[in-house]
Design brief:
Layout: H1 2-25, H2 35-54, E1 62-64, H3 77-94, H4 102-109, E2 121-129, H5 131-135, E3 141-148, E4 151-163, H6 176-180, E5 186-193, E6 198-202, E7 212-214, E8 227-229, H7 238-248, E9 255-256, H8 261-267, E10 273-276, H9 290-298, E11 302-305, E12 325-328, H10 330-343
Parallel strand pairs: 1-2, 8-9, 8-10
Antiparallel strand pairs: 2-3, 3-4, 4-5, 5-6, 6-7, 10-12, 11-12
Helix pairs in contact: 1-2, 1-3, 2-3, 7-10, 8-9
Length: 347
């Protein structure tokens, strides 16, 4: 757990630096050579480097989003050099005197080529979950999980722009990162190990505060609940979510946040329900849910597909789902599954 937390902290530090540059340059889209792409690669390298360094005798097996194919071409060399410089700025602080070459950076990126599956140990990484939130100066997260024989046994979420206290609508809005940046009470690290509960501490300067155990809210009625959903609707239907909320009697407006930040908020009781209903053609990746899944379960919540079946991470890089994902405290979860059968029945 210690190396996983350190890996996410270092990667989050890299992402924060790139997002600050992103703001200064007023970038609004993810292009092949944009700072956000540099951050995607850079965060993946930093996490893999940290984990491999903690256990050098074993080759790291990681299921991750990026590969080095484009960077190995002549056209990709300038970007590779920028990624290498960015990574080394973080490595220098963690291991003074150590410098990674561009060739080493390429090889570390490709440690993320594992297919996962039902046997063995595999790390699962989304180096920047919530890319559109990242470029929109909103919420994003660095998400690291561990699979052991197909079961998620560990999860760490680094949420650089998430307040440590109460969260409001404005904290998920475009430009919120600029307002929150530099605040000592902003930045959360959620973590959980199977059977050990779920915890949160400040993302940086963790020695200043003891970890706090978190639990999902003990809410049983829809009228008391607040549901969360993605800011963007391209991978999650806002209309289905709204219909389910009405069926359950939810009266409060949705809290819209990018990334697995929503799993963190659910685990500490700041939100009560997270629903995600993607288009039928969309395939959910395991790195988009693994870390948050174990954190919410260890906080007392349930995370299943729309039929109430617990998520299965043993099938490779993708999840097989019935319609969508529902995460909530147990009493509300049961009602939501029943509502989904009525509002969003199987095709």
């Amino acid at each position: 757990m210690a190396s996983a937390k350190e890996a996410v902290r270092l990667a989050s530090r890299l992402c924060q630096e790139v997002q600050r540059q992103l703001s200064a340059e007023e970038r609004v889209d993810k292009k092949d050579d944009s700072p956000v792409t540099v951050a995607d690669y850079g965060a993946q390298v930093v996490v893999a480097w940290t984990l491999q360094r903690a256990d050098p005798s074993t080759r790291l097996s990681m299921v991750a989003e990026e590969d080095s194919t484009e960077l190995r071409t002549p056209a990709g060399r300038p970007m590779l050099d920028r990624i290498t410089a960015l990574v080394n700025s973080v490595v220098a602080a963690a291991a003074p005197g150590e410098v990674l070459s561009p060739e080493q950076v390429l090889d570390i990126i490709d440690l993320g080529a594992s297919q996962g599956g039902p046997s063995g140990r595999h790390w699962v990484l989304d180096p920047i979950d919530g890319t559109r939130g990242f470029v929109g100066m909103r919420q994003y997260s660095v998400c690291l999980g561990m699979l052991q024989d197909g079961e998620v046994v560990l999860g760490v979420l680094g949420c650089p722009n998430l307040p440590q206290g109460p969260v409001g609508d404005d904290d998920g809005a475009t430009g919120s990162a600029q307002r929150l940046s530099g605040d000592a009470d902003v930045g959360c690290l959620f973590f959980s190990e199977r059977g050990q509960g779920a915890w949160v501490e400040p993302l940086q300067n963790a020695g200043d505060a003891a970890p706090a155990q978190v639990r999902v809210a003990e809410v049983t009625e829809g009228a008391e609940a607040r549901f969360m959903e993605s800011v963007e609707s391209r991978h999650s239907s806002h209309s289905i979510n709204a219909a389910l909320a009405r069926e359950l009697g939810v009266v409060r407006p949705p809290l819209r946040m990018d990334s697995q930040v929503k799993y963190g908020l659910l685990s500490r009781g700041c939100g009560t329900i997270f629903m995600r209903f993607p288009p039928a053609t969309y395939k959910e990746k395991i790195w988009d849910h693994a870390a948050g899944f174990v954190i919410v379960e260890e906080a007392g919540g349930r995370v299943t597909d729309a039929a109430g079946v617990r998520l299965d991470f043993s099938k490779g890089r993708f999840l097989a789902l019935d319609r969508g994902i529902i995460a909530a405290p147990p009493a509300l979860h049961e009602k939501l599954v029943a509502a989904a059968a009525k509002v969003a029945p199987k095709a």
